[in-house]
């Protein structure tokens, strides 16, 4: 099973869409709320160079934003039409 980590904020529409996508496809993931967790926020910036969310890591592959097709490809799931 691939390790899935998402750096997100509660009010981010794309973060919530990504988490819903994971749930619909039975993908377990770790969620870090970077609005509250300053250490994880800095970790996200250091790893990705990004300040916007979501930043998603699937194993060592980084996806910035909710790119459903790329996430599906990395996770080996079909994209629902």
UniProtKB/TrEMBL annotation:
TM ranges: none
> Where does the record place the Glutaredoxin domain?
4-63
InterPro entries, sorted: GlrX_YruB, Glutaredoxin, Grx-like_ET, Thioredoxin-like_sf
GO MF terms here are:
electron transfer activity
Query: Can you cite a GO biological process for this protein?
Result: cell redox homeostasis
What PROSITE patterns does the record point to? GLUTAREDOXIN_2
Alphabetical list of NCBIfam families matching this protein: GlrX_YruB
Q: Which PANTHER family match?
A: GLUTAREDOXIN (PTHR34386), GLUTAREDOXIN-LIKE PROTEIN NRDH (PTHR34386:SF1)
Q: Under what name is this protein listed?
A: NrdH-redoxin
Query: Could you read off the lineage of the organism from its UniProt record?
Result: Bacteria, Candidatus Zambryskiibacteriota
